[in-house]
Amino acid sequence: MTLAIYIHWPFCVSKCPYCDFNSHVADAVDHDAWRGAYVRELEHYAKALPARRVTSVFFGGGTPSLMEARTAEVILQNIARLWSVDDDAEITLEANPSSAEAGKFADFRAAGVNRLSLGVQSLREDALKFLGRAHDADEAKCAIALAAKTFPRFSFDLIYARQGQTPDMWCEELREALQMAGDHLSLYQLTIEPHTQFDTRARRGEFLTAKDDYAVSMFEATQEMMDAAAMPAYEISNHARAGHESRHNLTYWHYGDYIGIGPGAHGRYRNGARMAAENHRAPDIWLQETMKQGRGVKQAAEIDDKTAMREALMMGLRLTAGIAHEEWNEKFDMPLVQFLPSEKAARLVGEGYLAQDDTRLRATRAGLQRLNAVLGYLD
Predict the structure, then answer these.
(1) How far apart are CA 246 and CA 21, in angstroms?
(2) DSSP element (H, E) containing 146
(3) What's the CA gap between 261 and 278, in Å, rounded?
(4) Using CA atoms, how far apart are residues 3 and 101, in angstroms rounded to an integer?
(5) What is the pLDDT of residue 332?
(6) CA 39, CA 76: separation in Å to the nearest integer?
């Protein structure tokens, strides 16, 4: 059986106002202690899930490019010691484009990272300030160029539908991005997440996102431009040339087995039963618990088939290809058509939000734009 491994590095230089990830600002980090804790948690899972074949490793955060490259190297060496690893395993590291972090790209490549994901977020100075980013547009462009030279595969993120942004402004920015892009781009509409700085400002009456009709136009323009560039969406916000999709993220969306290492990391895996695990979010608590008992878990519990099928539906409909009935049947005893509430599904098909045939169920483009509502209706 295959396994994907997520490694969470929780530290950032500063907290971006839109971010709801488990990230923390720290004055100092004991890198030796963190290396040891990551290895201990990996060893715990190796005992619980032996004889697995690792297909991908993803260093996320936080800002993993702030870790020492030696930490990534030690983690990857121990993964190879504990499991069988595919020769072409995808090893991704998220990075910020600041000059200091870009200077470490070669070290991370030497450590074994073969795919870089850059958190650019915008190519416009005013937008970068609005989004609270620590880099400027020139640093972003230089980091993209350096990533292209250093790594076999790279991607970068952009956020659109921002305050004051028009469809024409976004199309101009996206055209510029495409001139620098490799084979993958992640393009996210700005959303206001609970408990973020933007959420506080929005509650005070500040308008931080583009007008709704502009956001719809930007989404449609994004699909058209990316299709024309031969980088169609394979997931709501992710676009790639054929064969260059993120293999690690596809594990999530296909509801494959993965483990989460580090503070706040989640896992879904089969170990006799189907398990869901969640680690302590606070870095100091996770570190202490891992060093004491080999694992920083907050809760780990068996999940029933209904819960698993609900999660698989939620993840699978994010993919533009949707959910293949054959793949679903390999995972669950109940066919997808029996799990779905038939009248509700038929209505969504009739209204053009879902499409279904003998081979798969998928959300249409209109359905992808409203996926939270579609899933809420089906629940």
Answers:
(1) 20
(2) helix 137-150
(3) 9
(4) 29
(5) 94
(6) 10
Asked whether residue 212 carries a pLDDT value surpassing 80, the answer given is yes
Q: How far apart are CA 263 and CA 279, in angstroms?
A: 6
Residue 66 corresponds to which tokens in the numbers above? 């702030």
The full DSSP string for 83-99 is SEEEEEEEEEEEE---H
Question: What are 219-231's pLDDT values in tens digits?
Answer: 999 999 999 999 9
Tell me: cis bond preceding 243? Omega within 30 of 0 counts: no
The per-residue pLDDT of the chain, averaged, comes to 96
The set of residues, in sequence order, having a beta carbon less than 8 Å from that of 42 and lying 6+ positions away, is 5, 75, 78, 79, 82, 261
Q: Name the 3-class secondary structure at 282.
A: coil
Beta strands per DSSP E along 280-363: 297-302, 323-324, 354-356, 360-363
255 and 312 Cβ atoms separated by less than 8 Å: yes
Find the Cα–Cα–Cα–Cα dihedral 337, 369, 327, 154, rounded to 10°: 180
What does 198-263 look like in DSSP terms, one character per residue?
A: HHHHHHTT---B--HHHHHHHHHHHHHHHHHTT--EEETTEEE-TT-S-HHHHHHHTT--EEEEST
Decide: pTM greater than 0.85.
yes
Structural domains of the chain sorted by starting position, each given as residue range(s) with its CATH number in brackets: 2-252 (3.20.20.70), 306-378 (1.10.10.920)
Q: Is the pLDDT of residue 272 over 90?
A: no
CB-CB contact of 245 with 50 (8 Å): no
